[in-house]
Hints:
single chain; 6-stranded mixed β-sheet; Aminoglycoside 3'-phosphotransferase, Chain: A, domain 2; 3-stranded antiparallel β-sheet; Phosphorylase Kinase, domain 1; alpha+beta
Amino acid sequence: xxxxxxxxxxxxxxxxxxxxxxxxxxxxxxxxxxxxxxxxxxxxxxxxxxxxxxxxxxxxxxxxxxxxxxxxxxxxxxxxxxxxxxxxxxxxxxxxxxxxxxxxxxxxxxxxxxxxxxxxxxxxxxxxxxxxxxxxxxxxxxxxxxxxxxxxxxxxxxxxxxxxxxxxxxxxxxxxxxxxxxxxxxxxxxxxxxxxxxxxxxxxxxxxxxxxxxxxxxxxxxxxxxxxxxxxxxxxxxxxxxxxxxxxxxxxxxxxxxxxxxxxxxxxxxxxxxxxxxxxxxxxxxxxxxxxxxxxxxxxxxxxxxxxxxxxxxxxxxxxxxxxxxxxxxxxxxxxxxxxxxxxxxx
Length: 347
């Protein structure tokens, strides 16, 4: 058997191979780690995807039903779970790890730096939102006023990181940089929160929960596979009930930090207008802007450094913080252009 980049710390290889053989009748001859999944090639040269899930089973047992729901609604741009010989979709080799199989989608991660691919990805997201609407499961997570609680907590975290740094007798270079850009990032967090509180988010969030509006919650190029000229969406383990602006805003924010987009409002406008045209309903632009501009990356960096205490090279933290700092002025210009075009225009 050819084993490439196998992560033996997270997978009991022999048990899984034997389980797949016994439960699915599939003899595995090759297995290769691909990001968070495993590519399996059988002795008949059929290719499968093996996904490991570390959640409690109740947190993802809805997945097979959800993917079938998408298929019934006409969304065919995703894989389906494969049943074993006892009509089960999942198997486990210990109490804490579950696995499932799908067919492997042969293709590459979508190159979203190309605007045409980005626009097609937006169309895929819109179609997913439309077709996923109405899926009902008691196991799917949701939270009333989720974003408001999240933004306030992260803002408090950032203040706590500052206080932690200021209590140090000796500061690192990263500490100094974090303090120097603190006021700018805090102002951005406050501005984002103002847009959020002045939006219709509370009602939209309640309606999303009531009407079963689904967000993918991990929509980015790693989970968009381009095969020939067709885009496929994968990795649905994190879906939640939430307003559609949540997916759209997070996607655009991540795009804007890429060099090819660099907080250019005209490019964001293309993506937003594409979504609105496809979705057919108005979106809340104040809510969308609040999601796009929230200093999540600044918070996340502090969270890694001061809470999770990730043992990473200091250069890693410094490089990422400098990238955030270099975008400060561009983000402010972006806010002004967005506000002028989408928000003040609609007053």
